[in-house]
């Protein structure tokens, strides 16, 4: 933090400071003639202003987070990022070892599975009427079209995975994504998020599973089972919560990378208050001495690092626009004065996210960094 010596102006001489003496960082004009790659662009942007500086700062924080050997990195994704053709950016993050767990909306994963199974999305022509589009089997997502035939074909694949699930066990989104990953590894030549995650053995959680095409397909499967007089699949979302909480409990340090906000962001962040409530409401009641004795209590888990890209402003009051500073008050994030490092980029992710990841990948290559962490999962 900048430490500026306060001067009395009334009754004294006003002194104009020069910036350097008070520790302010000098800015530099962006000189494109000196920039050779995405990494250099991000470093130069960090010395500019506004969203450009935010993106440059995000590269620094993300690089520190992913190269910290003690840091378990959670990535949360919301919005129509797979329809927007950002799937392979997520795959690059997974394949390079940047992230250790994925938390996503079901819709984002479903549209990503459409890609991974070799199907296509299309650019929307705004001259067409939405009613006519719907009649022809086109589902519009702003300027992009999803096809009903895509989703029908995907459901046939997902149905096979559901039929292979044991009917006498409870399942959750993580388990379903593991089975989908196994299927794609054997059947698809395309890269994809669920496939990459399974190859790297990292969990994929979908907290609002029923709020998606995947959830509807699950419900359709159980309706078919009921009509056939067969046993229904039992879905328990708390299996995801407990697995994630137990996994986080095993980590020395945690960091979060977020695109958008919504349920994935909140679900991933609430693990810190959840563990603290276990500590306070359960452990303390059973043995108060345990609650107060531990100096390095494993149930106190705050995110040390955080990078988020989201255009939503904080003043709307939604979780997507919530600042990391606000999250400190909930015990979700470590206070920057105590070592927390965060960067927030208020932009459309499709405009800046690819540049961020490309630049960080180049930085890793220049520094000869290969991320290899021994992660303990629940």
What features would you describe in this structure?
By secondary structure, this protein is an alpha/beta fold. Helices cover 46% and strands 12% of the residues. Strands 7-2-1-9-10-11 form a 6-stranded parallel β-sheet, sandwiched between helices. The protein has a 3-stranded antiparallel β-sheet with strand order 3-5-4. The protein starts with 37 loop residues before the first helix and ends in a 12-residue tail after the last helix. The model is unreliable at 1-11 (pLDDT under 50).
Query: How many domains?
Result: 2
Q: From the 3D structure, determine the CATH topology of the largest domain.
A: Deoxyhypusine Synthase
Main β sheet profile: 6 strands, parallel
Strand order of the largest sheet: 7-2-1-9-10-11
Q: Kindly state the number of beta strands.
A: 11
Gross morphology: globular
Bin the helical content: 40-55%
Q: Which structural class is indicated by helix and strand composition?
A: alpha/beta
Kindly report how far apart the N and C termini lie: 38 Å
Q: Could you name the CATH class of the largest domain?
A: Alpha Beta
**Would you tell me the overall average pLDDT?**
93
What is the element string, with H for helices and E for strands?
HHEHEHEHEEHEHHEHEHEHHHEHEH
Radius of gyration: 24 Å
Which homologous superfamily in CATH is the superfamily of the largest domain? Deoxyhypusine synthase
Please state roughly what percent of the residues sit in beta strands, choosing from under 5%, 5-15%, 15-25%, 25-35%, 35-45% or over 45%. Answer: 5-15%
Low-confidence stretches: 1-11
CATH architecture title of the largest domain: 3-Layer(aba) Sandwich
Q: How many helical elements?
A: 15
